[in-house]
């Protein structure tokens, strides 16, 4: 008879130790009032975005797959009464929320940026599954944000996507809710980092619906890593600092994480911002500038349109032939030429600005070749300092020589400014009141604004049933 397998001591690297130590030590009572409020705002915002995008194709495909994996003890596919495995619920809910292109964003000087709210619904799926309190959910969410954003601050390899931070942030937050012991959490982190490296190709050129699904994929991978660790699975040794590890082959450098939210230090969740238009974040300022101009009555009278932006916006949403020839919504909402054309012709950019009838509008298509996007170095300087400013200028030159100029940035509507609670509620209602009763929306908002008082967050998903 063979002897039982002996488990060898796990070789941990310093990044694992940092993550495990910080996660194990963070308690709700150490989280500031400001960070608790920020967490509640991002839960409200993300769930509103999810409902707003519920009937989109990525969500529909994800729900159809989840329906084949029922688990009454799992977690809810939000918008339905269906329950599936927590990791599958994480996939569906994160994919659906992200599809709105309205979830929060991180634009900090020198960072890799990203969408940390991609972790909100994966961590909620685990919180529901284990019957966690509102306070425990908030603590795990603030933790996940801290992890995501500290990775963003030290990472700069453009070959990989920020969804990789979602994997690790979701894994650490889920692991905390599962009550993993330090050794288990270390394994969880390893199983999140090593097998789940997401390439930036998901956001290059003509985009597909996987632009949204990458968020769900990342959230599911993080939750699944935590489930594996809880079940007793061991992860690879030295996931970050080993010879074939994450540092040398993904980050391409050795680094340390500056995990320090708490003990008088601000939590990084406070540095994220909510969107006020359903587009790639760098396209918001050009939209706001264009919306300040009168609606064009006849696009044929336009000679040329110049859009001045900061360098990062030019790179992300204003260069490449696909920006002038979007074939699907996923590319159009990442295109400065397209969204500026929409704003100039129709007055405002909304979720319906990317429907097929608008996407293939002949007047809009005829306007696109007249648009050029250029860098304004002063705008780049304003973007690369603190406080960040997202500046843009749209200049329309008519065939009769008339010039129309709209500027944006540096004011209360700047994407870098924190959205007021009143605006958060307005945005949530705009996304939900088409499908949920207004009184029901009021009840949901009251519950979420008092999230820290909930004994069990499992009461949240049933409030959102649509089908």
Question: Can you describe what's shown?
Answer:
- The chain is of the alpha+beta class and 467 residues long.
- 46% of the residues lie in helices and 7% in strands.
- The protein has helices at residues 14-25, 33-52, 57-66, 86-98, 120-130, 134-154, 163-177, 182-193, 210-231, 246-251, 284-291, 311-317, 329-332, 336-346, 356-359, 362-367, 377-383, 421-432, 438-449, and strands spanning 70-76, 83-84, 302-309, 371-375, 392-398, 403-408.
- A 4-stranded mixed beta sheet has the order 4-3-5-6. Strands 1-2 form a two-stranded antiparallel sheet.
- It is globular.
- The model is unreliable at 1-8 (pLDDT under 50).
Outline:
This protein has 19 helices and 6 strands. By secondary structure, the protein is an alpha+beta fold.
């Amino acid at each position: 008879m063979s002897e039982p397998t002996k488990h060898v001591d796990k070789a941990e690297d310093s990044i694992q130790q940092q993550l495990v130590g910080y996660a194990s030590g963070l308690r709700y009572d150490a989280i500031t009032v400001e960070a608790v409020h920020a967490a509640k705002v991002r839960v409200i915002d993300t769930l509103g975005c999810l409902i707003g995008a519920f009937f989109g194709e990525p969500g529909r495909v994800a729900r159809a797959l989840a329906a084949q994996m029922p688990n009454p003890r799992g977690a809810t596919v939000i918008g339905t009464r269906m329950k599936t495995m927590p990791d599958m619920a994480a996939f569906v809910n994160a994919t659906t929320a992200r599809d709105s292109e309205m979830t929060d964003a991180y634009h900090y000087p020198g960072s890799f940026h990203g969408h940390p709210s991609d972790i909100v619904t994966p961590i909620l799926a685990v919180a529901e599954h284990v019957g966690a309190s509102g306070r425990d959910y908030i603590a795990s969410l603030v933790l996940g944000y801290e992890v995501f954003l500290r990775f963003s601050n030290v990472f700069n390899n453009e070959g990989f996507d920020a969804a990789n931070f979602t994997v690790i942030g979701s894994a650490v937050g889920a692991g905390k809710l599962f009550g993993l012991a330090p050794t288990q959490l270390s394994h969880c982190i390893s199983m999140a980092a090593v097998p789940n490296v997401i390439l930036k190709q998901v956001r290059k050129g003509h985009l597909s619906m996987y632009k949204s699904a990458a968020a769900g994929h990342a959230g599911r991978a993080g939750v699944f890593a935590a489930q594996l660790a809880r079940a007793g699975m061991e992860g690879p040794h030295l996931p970050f600092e080993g010879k074939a590890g994450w540092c040398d082959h993904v980050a391409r450098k050795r680094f340390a994480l500056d995990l320090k939210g708490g003990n008088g230090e601000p939590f990084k969740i406070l540095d994220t911002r909510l969107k006020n238009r359903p587009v790639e974040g760098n396209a918001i300022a050009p939209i706001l500038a264009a919306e300040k101009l009168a609606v064009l009555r006849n696009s044929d009278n336009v000679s040329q349109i110049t859009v001045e932006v900061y360098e990062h916006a030019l790179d992300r949403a204003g260069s490449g032939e696909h920006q002038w020839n979007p074939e699907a919504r996923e590319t159009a909402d990442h295109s400065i030429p397209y969204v500026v054309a929409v704003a100039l012709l129709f007055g405002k950019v909304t979720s319906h600005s990317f429907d097929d009838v608008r996407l293939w509008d002949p007047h809009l298509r005829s306007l696109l070749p007249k648009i050029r996007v250029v860098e304004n170095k002063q705008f780049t300087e304003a973007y690369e300092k603190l406080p960040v400013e997202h500046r843009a200028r749209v200049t329309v030159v008519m065939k009769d020589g008339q010039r129309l100029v709209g500027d944006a940035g540096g004011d209360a509507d700047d994407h870098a400014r924190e959205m007021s609670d009143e605006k958060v509620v307005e945005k949530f209602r705009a996304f939900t009141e088409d499908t949920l009763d207004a009184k029901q929306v009021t009840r949901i908002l009251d519950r979420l604004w008092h999230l820290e008082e909930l004994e069990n967050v499992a009461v949240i998903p049933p409030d959102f049933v649509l089908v």
